[in-house]
Amino acid sequence: MAGHLLTNCAAVIANLGQGPIVLRDVDLLTEGPAIAAIGPNLSQGELPLGTERQDASGWFVYPGLINTHHHFFQCFVRNRAELDWTKLSVIEWLDRIYPIFSRLSEDGFYHASVTAMAELVKHGCTTAFDHQYCFPRQAGKRLIDRQFEAADLFGLRFHAGRGGNTLPKSEGSTIPDAMLETTDEFIADCERLIHTYHDGSSFSLRQVVVAPCQPVNCRPETFVESVALARAHGVVLHSHVGEGESAVIEARHGRRTVDYCAELGFAGPDTFYAHGWELTHDELARMAASGTGIAHCPEPVYLVGAEVTDIPAMAVLGLRIGLGCDGAASNDNSNLMHCIHSAYMLQCLVAATRRRPVPPPAEFLAYATSGGAALLGRSDIGRLAPGMAADLFAIDTRRMDYVGTRHDPLSLIPKVGIGTATDLTMINGRIVWRKGEFVGLDEARLFAEAEAALARLDL
């Protein structure tokens, strides 16, 4: 693979191992999938044959964003008035939404994934984890296979969370029987996917995460078997925890969700949970002690959170923190860059009522980059430095949008927000989005195919 030289970058947000720093007026050189060098006047030296030069004057170059929680399949129920959270109770909403999901075909899951991935890439996301827990019987078992196919279209670094639900509605689940699996079915398909797709090598574009949907919708043995499988193969574990279910879990099992998961072995440095907005300080402390991480999804807090997630407490305790978009059940966009701004502003909203200060704005950028890498168990992505994966995005700041903001690139996204697509997104040393176009793809065709798949649902 040929390399790229970005010359005259106005700012590169680098991290050489001691935290993020802003390097001004430098060049950035990639070679193959990795960053080869960052520094001044690289264009004056000898460059590898075939290196493509790009004038980056005025550009702020950031590490690629890492999305740590999403549900791509939910893209097909966005912006629907009849599913408005403000007009429905949670139970009413679930009763309406799951019959729709249960009608999705294999092709529908594929095009919903294409839709979400396209928006992520346009807004600087270079690695995406998706929690695909919806497996209607009529759609078959190859839904994650199709997600890997979709990721290949964009060159997206994809971590597939193979989710599943094993507890019937008659026993307290919220999942209709048409979407249920047995624990044996779920584990067998996780193992198939690991053997077929998981690549644990440096710069890999495909990894698999064992991710039972949530304790409230699964039998205990589903979590026990998930732990055994994941640790036998050295893959990461994930589930929903602390999003309003703890009282139910306590009524069923005599302990709240964090302690219940820990008792089942579903905790540790290879495990991260999504949400956590209802967790107590003691529960967060126990998670920190075990090394368990959290994927914070700020935008769902607007709709379904009883309170704003206590990120300052998590930070003080040393939890590993990443950011996620979540699905259209509670966030109608797939724009992780927007989530960085939302995460920071939500914490500012409640700062006066909390004893701990809001982390600096730059920390929220870190949650979406190096923090996400840590959750996914990756040491090769999440920061810009020689030897790291060439995952990055660039914003041309020579626009009126950025007048008065350019002195502080680290705080720009959390404090000001960026309302447009990137000028360039690069993944593994390959430019995948540039000047408003997906490189090598026809967006109009992708749009038409996704719209046709959506129409076939007859919502």
Automatic annotation (TrEMBL):
InterPro entries: Amidohydro-rel, Metal-dep_hydrolase_composite, Metal_Hydrolase, MTA/SAH_deaminase. The keyword Hydrolase applies. CDD domains: ATZ_TRZ_like (cd01298). Keywords: Hydrolase. Pfam families: Amidohydro_1. One of its GO terms (molecular function) is hydrolase activity, acting on carbon-nitrogen (but not peptide) bonds. It comes from the Bacteria. The keyword ATP-binding does not apply. Residues 60-432 form the Amidohydrolase-related domain. Belongs to the metallo-dependent hydrolases superfamily. ATZ/TRZ family. This is 8-oxoguanine deaminase.
